[in-house]
Amino acid sequence: MNTRFYNARILTMDGGMDIMEEGELCVCGNTISYIGKEENKDKTDWDRQIDVKGNLLMPGFKDAHTHSGMTFLRSMADDLPLDRWLNEQIFPREAKLSSQDIKMCTKLAILEYLSSGITAVFDMYLTPESIDEACIESGMRCVQVGGMNNFSQSLDEQEERYLKFNSGNPLTSYMLGYHAEYTCSKELLEGLSKLSHKYNAPVYAHNSETESEVKGCIERHGMTPTQFADSLGLFDHGGGGYHCVYLSDDDIRIFKERGLYIVLNPGSNTKLASGIADIRKYMDAGLKLAIGTDGPASNNCLDMFREMFLVTGLSKLKEKDASVVDADEVLAMAVKGGAQAMGLKDCDCLKEGKKADIIMIDLDTPNMQPLNNISKNIVYSGSKMNVKMTMIDGNIRYEDGIYDIGQDPREIYKYVNDLAERLR
Amino acid sequence: MNTRFYNARILTMDGGMDIMEEGELCVCGNTISYIGKEENKDKTDWDRQIDVKGNLLMPGFKDAHTHSGMTFLRSMADDLPLDRWLNEQIFPREAKLSSQDIKMCTKLAILEYLSSGITAVFDMYLTPESIDEACIESGMRCVQVGGMNNFSQSLDEQEERYLKFNSGNPLTSYMLGYHAEYTCSKELLEGLSKLSHKYNAPVYAHNSETESEVKGCIERHGMTPTQFADSLGLFDHGGGGYHCVYLSDDDIRIFKERGLYIVLNPGSNTKLASGIADIRKYMDAGLKLAIGTDGPASNNCLDMFREMFLVTGLSKLKEKDASVVDADEVLAMAVKGGAQAMGLKDCDCLKEGKKADIIMIDLDTPNMQPLNNISKNIVYSGSKMNVKMTMIDGNIRYEDGIYDIGQDPREIYKYVNDLAERLR
User: Fold this and answer.
1) How many other CB atoms sit within 10 Å of the CB of residue B283?
2) How do beta strands A402-403 and B48-51 pair?
3) Closest by CA position to A152, among listed A217, A84, A97, A73
């Protein structure tokens, strides 16, 4: 597909937050071939020429931590304490899932990502093969990360997947990872460290999501989850942590020295009452930040607009200072920070030669008016209703409310409703 | 207009959160004439018969505290400390507004309310006549409240408006009020108390939004804002407070004894770093609660979905308990609580004889699937994209992204953009 967008505002994010007015953006195959002011109408045999009508093109959001397959659990078990939620509601039902169930639940999540302008996800869940299939069939860009723990996903399986998914369809890739310190034995993590050194590969995991997790780790190992992982060499080739609500000063030092990414999940941390990460402190320390929705059982929606508002809003509340964590910095986390954390070097901004992972934001709506500051409008008043189009790898997968992922959304809804009914 | 909705899920909120499946709802003029299972196809000469296709009809949200006219300020002055935001950015620009400016800014807000399923607003701002005009012209239900302070809106003007707006178009009404203790002299408030007693009328005002407001009031009067207002007899006929982030135990006692409403504004309190109201405590004390967006300069969006998530989410964070402030209770605040606070006795639920203030929630979207629990889906994963239709007083004002408020939205956008440019 060759697509020409014209009459567009363009927020390239290649540098600052400047917006080009009345620009053109051309896509050849899966790559951005032109951004600028020239008219390219007759230069190629375009499959589609789209009048953007002054709306905004920008790079897609990157959901840097999620568990897509958990969609079946949405609103099945809310308003419960965390331990009862996990042990009574989540774990027993997850044990009954088939790989086909997870594939279809992942497809439901993909529909929602598209409606929220999310063009890539950093996904950790069961039966990685079915996640890979769901993403390739749907045209979703996905970086999977190992969710290894004492009960599932062995080291051998992880190595096999690392090799397989990183040499298969370029739309999907794989990073080494483990679920969390509290679900993994030391021996298992030592094995993962060896794998990381064998492939010079970064390692990701849930880290310091709750106070009790940190306390438990200190009791078990005399160290915080970050210190413990670092002591095992797990961060020698980089990587990062999901959540990171409770990092100590020494943890922050390790994150800085190892160049690790923090993936913030404010919606999930809010709904599960886990706490507010000290984002201002992380920013002051120069740490690298990205944003994720976490899974739909704990959030419950896969909505980058909500997450962006919460990243800055909760920081303002925590610091009692309305000036901290500027909206433009949050927007950068949701796009560039995520792409960098996920190793998607060609998906971080709009630029010639970069992958065509592009969204169109509808500015012709009351919540985007007036246009005093478009990037702040996106963070502070944007909503899914403003996502007019989502293009991944040069293919338009969502446009004006219509999905194009190779399967009728209602088939997917029916499957997941039936599944939820079966597992209720 | 007589409208028949069929094949609908219906959340009447007349009682609990039970949902009728495959129901019909009929509207004659501005009133709900039927809800049930019978087929009314041939019973009246319908102007429209709408196949709801299994989507959800429910009563519209009530935005119980806002300043609609501030839309021109959206994203003009974010990420600033509260005092600089008010004194450098807001007040100097407000001083330059004409009544026509406020009318058009209010219309911009009305468009956004409609897109968020808000069917009535409790509005406090300058030039109330132009707000009244904007709402009547647009078909928006509006309860205005006096924003009297030492600088604008005298007692005489307030009495005149109270009489005029409460005997004019039934779509709009008026409540007595004052901006806040810190902007009003004792004499002015004593005068308002007399007015309240003359008409047996409740009184509303900003109350205990910030710690410094409460501290200042104690310094000035030896009492909290609630105690001070009560000591002047301002609550003898009921009323309530906007924000109420910092209420003392004695304030809570006064709210309970006087039957006052608390209008929560979590989005604004978050963005301005004001704090988190102790909602669980208020609920335990049996206080009456409603929800507002506050104005678009401080929020910055007029989105009841964001507010509902924040009411429960921030409470969970504050209490460190994921089970507090159940989503269903939040949904009741956003609908019934608001209607009651605003004196809209006939707009609190869907029932024969009640006003036809109805919204249609699109369930055929990924963020509403699966349908494990529809009311929780609305609070935890709903978004403006789910508002398929907004009907006020029997008239459809918003449907599938199209607005019908008697003026082209683009004319409104242009006016407010030009205004913002002029005041920059």
Assistant:
1) 17
2) unpaired
3) A97
Contacts of A407 in chain B (CB under 8 A): none
Instruction: Pick A75's closest partner by Cβ from B79, B109, B372.
Output: B372
Name the percent of chain B in helix, strand, coil, to the closest 5: 40, 20, 35
Residue ranges covered by each domain of chain A: 2-60+354-403, 61-341
**pLDDT tens figures, A374-409:** 999 999 999 999 999 999 999 999 999 999 999 999
What are the distances in angstroms from CA A262 to CA A155, A238, A333, B30?
24, 11, 10, 53
Taking an 8 Å cut-off on Cβ atoms, the answer to whether B317 and A275 are in contact is yes
Neighbours of B310 (CB within 10 A): 27
Distance CA A216, CA A154 (A): 23
Distances (CA, A) of A312 to A17, A154, A283, A380: 17, 38, 12, 9
pTM: 0.97
For B61-341, the fitting CATH number among 3.20.20.140, 3.40.50.920, 3.50.50.60, 3.80.10.10 is 3.20.20.140
Pick the CATH number of A2-60+354-403 from 2.30.40.10, 1.10.150.530, 3.40.50.720, 3.40.50.1860: 2.30.40.10
CA angle B203–B209–B210, rounded 5-degree value: 145
Chain B stretch 325-364, residues whose beta carbon is closer than 8 A to a beta carbon of chain A? 325-327, 364
Question: Which residues 379-408 of B are in CB contact (within 8 Å) with A?
Answer: 380-385
Instruction: Note the pLDDT tens digit of each residue in A240-280.
Output: 999 999 999 999 999 999 999 999 999 999 999 999 999 99
B371 to A296: CB separation less than 8 angstroms, yes or no: no
Closest Cβ–Cβ partner in B72, B312, B380 for A370: B72
HSE-CB at B337 with a 13 A cutoff on CA atoms is: 26
Tell me whether residues B370 and A413 touch, CB distance under 8 A.
Answer: yes
Task: Express each pLDDT in B302-357 by its tens digit.
Answer: 999 999 999 999 999 999 999 999 999 999 999 999 999 999 999 999 999 999 99
